[in-house]
Write a structure and sequence with these properties.
This is Diguanylate cyclase/phosphodiesterase with PAS/PAC sensor(S). The chain is an alpha/beta fold and 836 residues long. The protein folds into five domains: 113 residues, CBS-domain (Roll); 125 residues, CBS-domain, CATH 3.10.580; 106 residues, 2-Layer Sandwich (Beta-Lactamase); 161 residues, Alpha-Beta Plaits (2-Layer Sandwich), CATH 3.30.70; 255 residues, TIM Barrel, CATH 3.20.20. 44% of the residues lie in helices and 24% in strands.
C-alpha cells in the first residue's frame, strides 16, 4: 500500500503522554522532556481528553514569572478541544486535516476509545516522498529569513520573539561568529529544569548543524533524521545563515497530487520500501535499548544532564541525578586512590577509561566500562566532562554482534568475502595436513543485472535472499555457502571423495535455483553458471583456487550459461587471449581497423529496400574479421564502447548523407546505442553535433536502444529519450520482448518503433509460442501506433507470416547479409535502376 494511502493507525504512537488538569506546567514540561514528546494530553479521572499542552503553548507562558517555581496549572494554559482523527483515516487525509486546523498533534480514536497520538513528525517520517524530495532544492522553498539573536540575550527575550514571530526556532549568534540554535523543545526542557532565567548562550544547542542551500530537501531530511533533530540551518553561497528549516517546512513543500499519481506506477516498490522502513525502525529501537548511559558534568563534576539509558542502567531519574556528583553511584569497592588517579588523569590528559563497580538505586552492584572525556571551554580549562558507560554484559553482546556483521553479508546473512577467505585458507591447510581433497564452487547468476535494471534493486535483493536460502538447503554437511559480492556466491566443500561427488552437488545447486520464480510480483527465469576448482589438483593456495574457480565460471557462461565447468589449465590461456584482444581493441580505432557495414531493412511485401542498420566490424591485421560477439562485450566492460559508438554514428551519418545527395538512399540508417553511452556519454549533445557536422537531417537517423536500458527509469533514461525525440531522431526499442518490460512504462517512452527479436522470428513458422509472442508484439505496436521491424528473417515462410500479421518491415539473410559500404552502395544502385 502507498505510504500516503495507509491509515494513520500504522504510524501513530500508541503510548499517550497524559497528566491530570491539576498538574503544574513545570511538571508537565518535565514529563514531555523525559518522554521526548512535543505535547501532553490533559485528561480527567475518566480518561477523557480535556485539552492539550504543546511546545507552542509553552511559548505563551510569562517566563519572567516561571523563572522560579509558581503555581500555574496546565489546565489554565492548555489548548482545547483536542482535535481527533477517526481510525482508518489515511495519511493523505490526515495531512489535510492538520493544515486546515493549523495543528501539529491529533488523537486517533475508534468507537470512543483513544488508540494513540499522531504528530506532524510522524507524517513527515512516513510520507514516502523520496522521489519528490530528491528534486526539490532548499533554495526554492521560500522559507522566511532566519531570526538570529545575540547570545547575551535572556531566554524570555527569545521566547517573546518566537511567540510574536510564530517561529519554531531562532539562531543564537556568539561573539566568535559561531551559531547556536534554540527550539521550542529546548524551551520546554528549560522550563522543566527551572532554568528560565539564563542567557541564550548558556542554554542553546551549539554549534547549529547547517547545510548549503543548493542541497536537496531529501538530503536535508536524511541529515535531520541521522542526527535526530527537527531543525537545520540553511546557508547561502556566502556562507551566511539564510533560514532555519523545520519538519513543518518539509511537510508544507510536499506535493500530494504528484505523489499520488506516482504511487500507481510505484505501488509495489513503495510496499517494499514500507517494509524496509518498518524493519529499520524496529532495528533502531532495538539498538536504542542497548545504548550506553551518558552523564555530562560541569568542570567541578556536578551532573548537568543524563540520557534515558543512564536512568535505565542506574535506576536514578534525571531529576534525582542532576545537581549531584557521580559519587551518587559509588559502591565502596574502589579505594580513594582509584578516584585520585582518575581525576589526576582527567586534569592532565582530559581522558580516562576503565572498569568501575558501581551501585544502582536499588542497591545492586554492577560493573560498567566507563569512558570520560574532558571538553575545554573558551579559557582553555575543562568546562565539562562527558561520561559514557555500559554494562560489561551489554558490551560483550554488542561486540559479538559487530563481529557477526563484519563477517557476514547484511542482506542474506551468509558469510561474506572476509570470513570465506579465512575459511578457505584454513580449509587448504587442513586438507594439506590430512591429505584430503577439497572443492570450491564459484556461482554467478545469469542475467541478474536485467532483473535489477527492469524490476529495481529491491526485487534484486529479494531474489538474492531466495537464492541464498535455496543454496543452504542443498549444501552438504560441513560445507560453507558464502556471498562474495553482488550476485556472486561460493560453496566450499571440504573432504570430498571424488569429482563425481562434486559434479553431482553442482548439478543439485543448478536444479535448486534454475527455473521460474516470482520476484516483486513478477515471474522471472533464474539460472546460474558455476566454475569449479579442486585442491590440490587446481591450486595449492586459497588465492589460486579462487582465481581458477572464477575462470571456470566464465567458461561456463561462454558455453551457454546454466551449466558448470571444472577448471582446466587451458582456461588461463583463454583469459590471456581476452586480455590481448582488449589491448588490440584499444589500438583498433587509431589504426583504422574498424569498419561500418550495412544490413538492408526491406518492405516485407515487395522486397524494396527502405532503410539500413549500421553494424560495427573489426578487421584485425592478424586475426582477420573478428566477430562482434567476441569484441563488443570487451568494449562494454572496458568503456571503449563510448568512443567506438561515437565513431560508428559519425561514419554512418557521413556515408548516408553522401548516398542521399546521390539520391541512392531515402530511408533511415539505424545505429545501436549502448546503455553506457546513454547514461554517461552526453549522447544528446553527440547526436546533435554529429547531425550538424554531417549535414544530415535528423529524420534520416534512427537510434536503436535495448529494451532493458529503455526501461531503466532510475537512471534518468526517460529525460534523455525525450531530448533525443525533440531533435527529430527516430527512436526504436531493440530486442523487444526479451526482457521484463512494463507496458504502462512503455506508453510514456517517446519511441516510434519496436524491433522484434530474432529469437522469436527464428521458429515462429513452427513454434506456437514464438508465433503467439510475435503476434502479441505486433498487436502492441498497432495499439500504441508504433512502427515494427522483424529481425532475423531467413525463410519465406517467416516473411509470409509476418506480412499476414501486419508487420511491414524486416531484415535478415532472406534479403541480405550485412555488407561493406561499397557492396551496400552497389545494392543501392541496382535497386535504383530497378525501381527507376
Amino acid at each position: 500500500m502507498s505510504p500516503l494511502l495507509q491509515p494513520v493507525d500504522h504510524i501513530l504512537l500508541p503510548e499517550i503522554l497524559s497528566c491530570p488538569p491539576s498538574t503544574s506546567v513545570h511538571e508537565a514540561a518535565r514529563l514531555m522532556m523525559v518522554s521526548h514528546c512535543g505535547s501532553i494530553i490533559v485528561m480527567d479521572e475518566a480518561g477523557t481528553a480535556l485539552g492539550i499542552w504543546t511546545e507552542t503553548d509553552a511559548l505563551n507562558l510569562d517566563f519572567s514569572a516561571t523563572a522560579g517555581e509558581d503555581d500555574t496549572l496546565v489546565e489554565q494554559v492548555m489548548s482545547s478541544p483536542v482535535r481527533t482523527l477517526q481510525s482508518g483515516t489515511s495519511v493523505h487525509d490526515a495531512t489535510g486535516f492538520f493544515r486546515r486546523h493549523g495543528i501539529r498533534h491529533a488523537l486517533v480514536e475508534r468507537d470512543g476509545v483513544y488508540l494513540g497520538l499522531v504528530s506532524l513528525t510522524d507524517i513527515v517520517l512516513n510520507q514516502g516522498t523520496e522521489s519528490f524530495l530528491g528534486l526539490k532544492r532548499l533554495e526554492d522553498l521560500g522559507c522566511r529569513p532566519a531570526c538570529v539573536l545575540g547570545a547575551e540575550l535572556g531566554l524570555k527575550d527569545a521566547v517573546k520573539v518566537m511567540r510574536q514571530g510564530a517561529v519554531d526556532a531562532v539562531g543564537v549568534c556568539f561573539s566568535d561568529g559561531e551559531l547556536g540554535i534554540l527550539t521550542r523543545r529546548d524551551v520546554v526542557r528549560l522550563l522543566a529544569q527551572g532554568e528560565c532565567d539564563q542567557a541564550l548562550g548558556a542554554v542553546c544547542s551549539r554549534p547549529m548543524l547547517t547545510m548549503a542551500e543548493n542541497a536537496s530537501l531529501l538530503h536535508a531530511r536524511r541529515l535531520m533524521l541521522q542526527h535526530k533533530i527537527r531543525h537545520l540551518g540553511v546557508c547561502g553561497a556566502d556562507g551566511g545563515l539564510k533560514f532555519i528549516l523545520g519538519f513543518g517546512d518539509i511537510l508544507h513543500n510536499i506535493e500530494h497530487e504528484c505523489l499520488l499519481e506516482l504511487q500507481g506506477a510505484l505501488n509495489e516498490r513503495d510496499q517494499a520500501l514500507l517494509l524496509s522502513r518498518q524493519s529499520l525502525l524496529l532495528a533502531d529501537k532495538v539498538f536504542e535499548s542497548t545504548l550506553e548511559g551518558i552523564a555530562i558534568t560541569d568542570g567541578y563534576g556536578i551532573i548537568q544532564s543524563v540520557n534515558p539509558a543512564f536512568e535505565r542502567i542506574t535506576g536514578y531519574s534525571a531529576r534525582e541525578s542532576i545537581g549531584k556528583t557521580p559519587a551518587l553511584l559509588k559502591s565502596g569497592k574502589q579505594p580513594p586512590e582509584f578516584y585520585e588517579h582518575l581525576w589526576h588523569s582527567l586534569k592532565r590528559d582530559g581522558v580516562w577509561q576503565g572498569e568501575v563497580i558501581n551501585r544502582r538505586k536499588n542497591g545492586l552492584l554492577y560493573t560498567e566500562h566507563l569512558s570520560i572525556t574532558g571538553i575545554r571551554g573558551d579559557n582553555g580549562e575543562y568546562a565539562h566532562y562527558v561520561a559514557v558507560f555500559s554494562d560489561i554484559t551489554q558490551r560483550k553482546q554488542a561486540e559479538e554482534r559487530l563481529h557477526f556483521l563484519a563477517n557476514h553479508d547484511a542482506l542474506t546473512g551468509l558469510p561474506n568475502r572476509t570470513l570465506f577467505l579465512e575459511r578457505l585458507e584454513a580449509g587448504v591447510e587442513q586438507a594439506r595436513e590430512f591429505g584430503q581433497r577439497m572443492a570450491l564452487l564459484f556461482i554467478d547468476l545469469d542475467r541478474f543485472k536485467l532483473v535489477n535494471d527492469t524490476l529495481g534493486h529491491h526485487a534484486g535483493d529479494e531474489l538474492l535472499v531466495w537464492i541464498a536460502e535455496e543454496m543452504k538447503k542443498v549444501a552438504p554437511p560441513l560445507a560453507m555457502v558464502a556471498r562474495l559480492s553482488g550476485d556472486e556466491f561460493t560453496l566450499l566443500m571440504p573432504a570430498v571423495d571424488s569429482v563425481q561427488q562434486v559434479a553431482s552437488r553442482a548439478q543439485s545447486v543448478l536444479d535448486a535455483i534454475a527455473g521460474e520464480t516470482v520476484v516483486a510480483g513478477q515471474e522471472v527465469f533464474v539460472s546460474a553458471s558455476i566454475g569449479i576448482s579442486m585442491f590440490p589438483e587446481d591450486g595449492a593456495s586459497a588465492d589460486v583456487l579462487l582465481v581458477n574457480a572464477d575462470t571456470a565460471m566464465y567458461r561456463a557462461k561462454e558455453r551457454g550459461k546454466s551449466n558448470f565447468q571444472f577448471y582446466t589449465p587451458d582456461m588461463n590461456a583463454s583469459a590471456l587471449e581476452r586480455l590481448r584482444l582488449e589491448y588490440s581493441l584499444h589500438k583498433a580505432l587509431a589504426q583504422d581497423e574498424l569498419e561500418v557495414w550495412y544490413q538492408p531493412k526491406v518492405e516485407l511485401a515487395t522486397g524494396r529496400l527502405v532503410g539500413a542498420e549500421a553494424l560495427i566490424r573489426w578487421r584485425h591485421p592478424e586475426l582477420g574479421l573478428v566477430s562482434p560477439a567476441r569484441f563488443i562485450p570487451i568494449a562494454e566492460d572496458s568503456s571503449l564502447i563510448v568512443p567506438i559508438g561515437e565513431w560508428v554514428m559519425k561514419t554512418a551519418c557521413r556515408q548516408v548523407r553522401e548516398w542521399r545527395e546521390r539520391q541512392l538512399f531515402g530511408g533511415r540508417v539505424a545505429v545501436n546505442v549502448s546503455g553506457r553511452q546513454l547514461k554517461f556519454a552526453g549522447v544528446v549533445e553527440l547526436v546533435e553535433r554529429t547531425l550538424e557536422e554531417c549535414g544530415l537531417p535528423s529524420a534520416a537517423l534512427e537510434l536503436e536502444i535495448t529494451e532493458s536500458v529503455a526501461m531503466d527509469e532510475d537512471s534518468g533514461m526517460v529525460e534523455v529519450l525525450h531530448r533525443l525525440h525533440e531533435l527529430g531522431v527516430y527512436l526504436s526499442i531493440d530486442d523487444f520482448g526479451t526482457g521484463y518490460s512494463s507496458l504502462s512504462y512503455l506508453k510514456r517512452l517517446p519511441v516510434q518503433g519496436l524491433k522484434i527479436d530474432q529469437s522469436f522470428v527464428a521458429d515462429l513458422h513452427q513454434n506456437r509460442d514464438d508465433a503467439a509472442i510475435t503476434q502479441a508484439i505486433i498487436s502492441i505496436a498497432r495499439s500504441l501506433g508504433l512502427g515494427l521491424v522483424a529481425e532475423g528473417v531467413e525463410l519465406d515462410e517467416q516473411r509470409r507470416y509476418l506480412v499476414e500479421q501486419g508487420c511491414d518491415t524486416g531484415q535478415g539473410y532472406l534479403f541480405s547479409r550485412p555488407l561493406p559500404a561499397a557492396e551496400f552502395e552497389a545494392l543501392l544502385e541496382r535497386q535504383y535502376l530497378a525501381w527507376d
